[in-house]
Fold this protein.
Amino acid sequence: PIPLILDCDPGHDDVFAIWLAAGDPAIDLRAITTVGGNGRLSHTTYNARVVTELAGITGVPISPGAESPLVRLLTPAESIHGDNALGGPRLPVPAREADPRTAIELIRDTLDASAEPVTIVATGPLTNIAMFVRLHPDRLSRIRQVVWMGGSTGRGNITPYAEFNSWTDPEAAAIVLGSGLPFTMIGLNVTHQVLATREVVAGIGAIGNRTAAFGVELLHFFNATYETDQGMPEGPLHDPVAVALVARPGLVTTVRARLDIELHGTETAGATSVDLLGKLGREPNADVATGIDVEAFWKLLEKAIRALA
Ligand code: BDR
Ligand code: CA
């Protein structure tokens, strides 16, 4: 199995990323780190503890990272994820504590303990990963690749051109991209293809375990807020797509392209510029997702949830 660190800000769709990473036999989930994003760090960390314990995931340390973006102020995505970043279900009080190490320390120790390079999947703002890059440049060779849910080849969701994770901490995204680490971007152009339709929600409900029942409650809330906030009655399950790309190469198709992050735009800060036509004449620096086998994705996710508690 592929050793993996999941850096996330749960968040409804982050929860499914956690469950996919823990439930899929192709992945060896070694650590979870949290970041301020969809909610304040205290909420995203608490939520990670809740949903791992609920799903019976043991032996995976969870460490809190950055409270806020490198330069900008955090604006949690309350209109989508609610006041606590995980609106909808009643959250059971988790018995297990977070790991005493910081996210940066946990990433460092996880890399050091691994015989082979470790993949980092990031499903929130890239603040923690950027800090790691800056603090531990000597350890970057121990990272196989960074796979990030963020950005878009086209429209945005938090502004007309910027996607939320990219808009929240564009400076961090630019640092990670500039580090030379192999980088894959999975943006809204692909994640908006995996919608929590009535059939999808029913399929997850039919799994019949406690994790699935909690997941259905999450999706009901998520679909309702997506309808009011984004005019999409079926919410897109962005984050698990990044895990699926690692678990099943080929399920998500990518192209090599030049990717740049807009840091200074008056209307476009956080926009991802993806040069699909090669017009800029700059060296390609990223794999950018362009397509997904939607059926195979839902099958993979259902199978993983079935393997949990
Ligand atoms: C991204 O922003 C968050 O709201 C989601 O969890 C996802 O990571 C989608 O733009
Ligand atoms: Ca997220």
Summary: The pocket of beta-D-ribofuranose (ligand 1) is lined by residues 11, 13-14, 38, 77, 80, 123-124, 149, 157, 163-165, 238-239 (CB under 6 Å). Residues 5 and 90 are 27 Å apart (CA to CA).
